[in-house]
Specification:
The complex is a heterodimer. Chain A is an all-alpha fold. Chain A has 21 helices and 2 strands. In chain A, helix 3 (24-52) packs parallel to helix 5 (106-125), helix 3 (24-52) packs antiparallel against helix 17 (458-488) and helix 15 runs antiparallel to helix 16. In chain B, the strands form 2 sheets. In chain B, strands 3-2-1-5-8 form a 5-stranded mixed β-sheet, with no helix packed on it. Chain B has a 5-stranded mixed β-sheet with strand order 4-10-9-6-7. The chains are: A mainly alpha, B alpha+beta. Chain A: InterPro entries: Cyt_c_oxase-like_su1_dom (IPR023616), Cyt_c_oxase-like_su1_sf (IPR036927), Cyt_C_Oxase_1 (IPR000883), Cyt_c_Oxase_su1_BS (IPR023615).
């Protein structure tokens, strides 16, 4: 029924639906579209960087433009591509996995998305308005203060707005998992992806405020004449580094833990086996998250913090290898003795193990402070974090997209194109980044616009660039696959992979907007699997069929974010001309006005009557 | 599919062979052929951690391959339901305890050498040189001897040299991969590190912290000479008479142009605490001009005529009157004959 309705609706109606939606599944679509757009943008920036480095002393782009490229590549990929896509996957799947009808605060969920989107757009407006930020994605204070033009101002304002959105997402997921688990879904029966969402949200909650504070300090310095980072006036630039990495290191785990959860589910599903050492996996995730807050200074071994600080942070860093190792071996043990199906989703998960293990290995090597004096800020580090973020996060995102495409879009991605994407990406990825370990040790620092002739770095860089073309090809195939699937893709049953968890226990694919007509009763870990093994085939309802209370959509989140977007321009340009205060105060007043409307206008949502649910069930 | 995989394998083999042939990188640049105390200590830890981690990697990969060979879904057994194993305490304990032991093996030498490498208690008994990082050049102040130089840092072989480093504008990082690991050059505080080179030679130095558009062009060199030559060089540098008239007439004209065109406002010849621009006392002996250009007269003329196109964002652009090519040529002639010492990069073995 819902499908025919969709086909009949006009473009305008669909647009309005998505602008006002507060349904977690549609917000997930928005996150995937927004994040996907920025992923392509960040990928193009990466290709431009690699073309510049295809040969020594190349002049494909200028030095200043190159610095804008590397800054925007890093910032875009981390804040505007990887994280939003992860938030999209969490939004789409986590409520289903815990048997909920939506998240705790659907309005906040929508606001979080629009803040991210407008923040990202604001940041990218800088390309057309005098130049993008050029102080690196880490934007170290001395250089960021020194940077001319408005580039860094866009970085500050854009990330501040987008970051607020992410923080809202994190709080929302926490509240959802604490309050909205279906009957019987105890914490220790949650699928690992739901657990990972929970722990990641804790990381977001505690890590993002450090970034917020840091961005405010930089904003005051650049726009309002303060001197937090101005050494001549008694400021200190090292403070920026500390605050940035107090946020930045947990951020790395924000990017990888959700995928650890996803891979746990995928290995278990496609091996037809229960996850090996479930309890250990949960506690290993917690331990990684906890230790993730204790290691930020390993990004600062060469700053001159002294041997005591360096030793403590070195040991803490190496210690993270222990819980991570537990996870790797538990995944292998999950597959051991199983009956393994290899499809495109599973391929990404299988490709992840060797790739991420290399990233983890080099992570421990980097943790040895004394060795790090050589690795630090070279291509070795570039290789390391791409092995972790691409080999872990991006592989995970592709895995998640292939695995959950039926749940999210009601179609199955084309298997042949999926495999082609995997193999070209996998080969291209290792070609691009493996050689960079050696480039770093052979004396190539990171963020180099050119490398000089006759330094023994030519071949490595050439291979690396060729690898980048392979990855680009893979992404193009994936995009074609999306359009092909949307047009001609196979419509799957709600449970195409013989799933074990509740996202496969919905009545249709994709699930109805209320997810479950009757909340399911969970009787243990892998609830759907338990019912299948006992011959029931489907979940036992935990409640009689009744009216379902659902919230109403609203345009207010979009408008509020628009207000902040306008105010962002005001903040950036009031330095040049005081007329811009109009935009600053106007935008803020508009956002505040929306909040007032939201606060004083009662909106009790709507009910889906029992009769309609019965009709749809037939 | 098979032939396709074969091609990939051949490609992988070819690229690893190429890597092997190119060896460990360029001599006196690569960190993989250590020629100093710091780089040797770091290299030993790089090797130790690589060996330990390779052991872990092999354990993972062997298990992984076995799993993929043995436990694929088999034809005719599509409905096979494997045993639902919850876990295994012994196994899980093993892969918790072994990594802990491995971490300890790596952590102990890390901690020990973190302390040895940052021990500056004996700095007073050794040579001390003040280093200032600037966009985009390096200033070296031999404060005990009372003179300064830029870009090429001369040190005696086999002796500890303490570098007291600070930045004048934005953060930089001092890295001579073959001699020592890097240390940041902060704007806030002075960082002290020591370097000790085992062999004479000319070593490549790099700035390793993003510092602006020309970050990648902020190269410098460390010239390691024998202790006797070092003393000779010190004596020669102290003896420099900045007022000395050059021998050739062209160079004399160049000297006048140098003085007339405000060059001296930033560039000292002879000892001077000023460090707005690089000190040019021994400019004629430089390994490279502007940090990375081959030391030819053409390059120097180009640089003087239009520095912005060569090193974007440099602080020299626009700070002196426009010069004709003829004038730039004469100034270059003057600068290139500033060779106060017999001890030069060439006498140290030359830049490889």
């Amino acid at each position: 029924m819902s499908v025919t309705a969709t086909q009949k609706r006009s473009v305008g109606a669909v647009l309005w639906d998505y602008l006002t939606t507060i349904d977690h599944k549609k917000i997930a679509h928005l996150y995937l579209i927004g994040g996907g757009f920025f992923f392509i943008l960040g990928g193009l920036e990466a290709v431009i960087i690699r073309i510049q480095l295809i040969k020594p002393e190349n002049d494909f782009i200028s030095a200043g433009f190159y610095n804008e490229m590397i800054t925007m590549h890093g910032t875009t990929m981390i804040f505007l591509a990887a994280m939003p896509i992860l938030l999209g996957l969490m939004n789409a799947i986590m409520p289903l996995q815990i048997g909920a009808r939506d998240v705790s605060f659907p309005f906040l969920n929508s606001l979080g998305f629009w803040l991210f989107m407008f923040g990202g757009l604001l940041l990218n407006c800088s390309w057309f308005l005098g130049g993008a930020p050029d102080a690196g994605w880490t934007s170290y204070a001395s250089l960021a203060i020194d940077s001319p033009g408005h580039g860094v101002d866009f970085y500050v304002a854009g990330l501040q707005i987008a970051g607020a959105g992410t923080l809202m997402g994190g709080i929302n997921f926490l509240a959802t998992i604490v309050n909205m688990r279906a009957p019987g879904m105890t914490y220790m029966r949650m699928p690992l992806f739901a657990w990972a969402t929970f722990i990641t949200s804790v990381l977001i909650l505690f890590a993002f405020p450090a970034l917020t504070v840091n961005l405010f300090l930089l904003m005051f310095d650049r726009m309002f004449g303060s001197a937090f980072f101005d050494v001549a006036l008694g400021g200190n630039t090292i403070i920026w580094q500390h605050l940035f990495w107090i946020f930045g290191h947990p951020e790395v785990y924000i990017l990888i833990l959700p995928l650890f959860g996803l891979f746990s589910d995928v290995f278990s599903t496609f091996s037809k086996k229960r996850l090996f050492g479930y309890t250990a996996m949960v506690f290993a995730t917690m331990l990684i998250a906890f230790l993730g807050f204790m290691v930020w200074a390993h990004h600062m071994f060469t700053v001159g913090l002294g041997p005591v600080a360096n030793s403590i942070f070195a040991i803490a860093t190496m210690a993270i290898a222990v819980p991570t190792g537990i996870k790797i071996f538990n995944w292998l043990a999950t597959m051991w003795g199983g009956s393994i199906t290899i499809n495109s989703a599973m391929l990404w998960a299988l490709g992840f193990i060797p790739s991420f293990t290399i990233g983890g290995m080099t992570g421990v090597m980097l943790g040895s402070a004394v060795a790090d004096y050589q690795y630090h800020d070279t291509y070795f580090v570039i290789a390391h974090f791409h092995y972790v973020i691409v080999g872990g996060t991006v592989f995970g995102i592709f895995c998640g997209l292939h695995y959950w495409w039926p749940v999210m879009f009601g179609r199955i991605l084309h298997e042949g194109m999926g495999k082609l994407t995997f193999w070209t990406f996998f080969i291209g990825f290792h070609m691009t980044f493996f050689i960079q370990h050696f480039l770093g040790l052979m004396g190539m620092p990171r963020r180099y616009w050119v490398f000089l002739e006759d330094q023994g770095l030519d071949l490595g860089n050439l291979i690396s660039t060729i690898g980048a073309f392979f990855m680009s090809f893979a992404v193009i195939v994936f995009i074609i696959n999306i359009f092909y699937t949307a047009a001609k893709g196979e419509r799957p049953s709600p449970d195409p992979y013989d799933g074990r968890t509740l996202e496969w226990a919905t009545a249709s694919s994709p699930p109805p907007h209320y997810n479950f007509a009757q909340l399911p009763l969970t009787r243990g870990l892998d609830p759907l699997w338990i019912e299948k093994m006992e011959g029931n085939g489907k979940m036992t309802p935990a409640e009689p069929l009744g009216d379902i209370h659902m919230p109403n959509g609203s345009i207010l989140p979009f408008l509020m974010s628009l207000g902040f977007f306008i105010a962002g321009f005001g903040f950036i340009y009031q330095v040049d001309h005081s007329a811009w205060y109009l935009a600053l105060y106007g935008g803020m007043a508009f956002a505040l006005g929306c909040m007032v409307v939201r606060s004083f206008k009662d909106d009790h949502g709507h009910h889906i009557p029992k009769e309609e649910l019965e009709r749809e069930a037939d | 599919m098979k032939g396709w995989m074969g091609k990939i394998k051949a490609l992988a083999l070819l690229s690893s062979l190429a890597l092997f042939l190119s060896g460990c990188g360029k001599d006196n640049l690569t960190a993989l052929v250590p020629k100093g105390y710091g780089s040797e200590v770091s290299f030993n830890l790089i090797i130790l951690t690589t060996v330990v981690m390779t052991f872990v990697f092999l354990a993972v990969i062997i298990t992984y391959v076995i799993v993929l060979l043995r436990f694929r879904k088999k034809k005719g057994q599509e409905d096979f339901i494997p045993k639902q194993v919850e876990g295994n305490q012994t196994l899980e304990t093993i892969w918790t305890v072994i990594p802990i032991i491995l971490v300890i093996i790596m952590a102990v030498p890390t901690v020990i050498h973190s302390f040895t490498l940052s021990d500056t208690s004996e700095a007073d008994e050794h040579i001390n040189i003040d280093v200032t990082g600037n966009q985009y050049w390096w200033h070296f102040d031999y404060k005990d001897e009372g003179f300064q130089t830029s870009q090429d840092l001369y040190i005696p072989q086999g002796e500890r040299v303490y570098l007291n480093m600070i930045a004048s504008d934005v953060t930089h990082s001092f890295w001579v991969p073959s001699i020592s690991g890097k240390m940041d050059v902060n704007v806030d505080n002075e960082n002290t590190m020591y370097i000790e080179a085992y062999e004479e030679g000319v070593y490549w130095g790099k700035c390793a912290e993003l510092c602006g558009p020309s970050h990648s062009l902020m190269d410098f060199k460390v010239i390691v000479v024998s202790p006797e030559e070092y003393d000779q060089w010190i004596a020669d540098m102290k003896d420099v008479d900045p007022e000395a008239e050059p021998e050739s007439a062209v160079a004399q004209e160049g000297k006048e142009l140098f003085e007339e065109n405000n060059c001296m406002g930033c560039h000292a010849i002879g000892s001077s605490p000023a460090q707005v621009g690089p000190n040019l006392t021994n400019f004629g002996d430089r390994t490279k001009f502007a940090g990375f250009l081959d030391p030819t007269k053409e390059n120097l003329v180009d640089w003087i005529m239009d520095p912005e196109s060569i090193k974007p964002g440099n602080k020299m652009t626009g700070n002196y009157p426009d010069l004709s090519e003829d004038e730039a040529d004469k100034i270059a002639e003057y600068l290139m004959q500033l060779q106060p010492s017999e001890v030069t990069p060439d006498s140290a073995g030359g830049l490889k």
